[in-house]
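name: query_chain
kind: protein
chains: 1
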Amino acid sequence: MCISELKFDDKGLIPAVICDYRTNEVLMVGYMNEEALRRTVESGRTTFWSRSRQEFWVKGEGSGHLQEVKWIRLDCDGDTLLIGVEQHVGACHLGYRSCFFRELHDGRWEVIAEKVFEPDEVY
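structure:
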């Protein structure tokens, strides 16, 4: 893996935009350090670095809503990853398929998606 081509920020992180590998629907954004990226590549499951908890986490490890990595792309500047996944159930901890379930309409955020699971039943 050509880690040297990646531009990590001053905290050693790179944003990873996670999308559906078939439709390119954006599901979530997380951050990876070098080790999280290595774990993602080796396991085929998205692994992130939690900036708040200061620890690694695998998406769906607790909920069962895993992300199977199908491909990984690097943007032209080398500072953002785009990762295509097969998402099992939902990516959003609030119960939606995507974390981007709100859209701005007339100055207000409106929910534009249906929940795919109830968080209280999963977490």
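note: The chain is about 10% helix and 35% strand.
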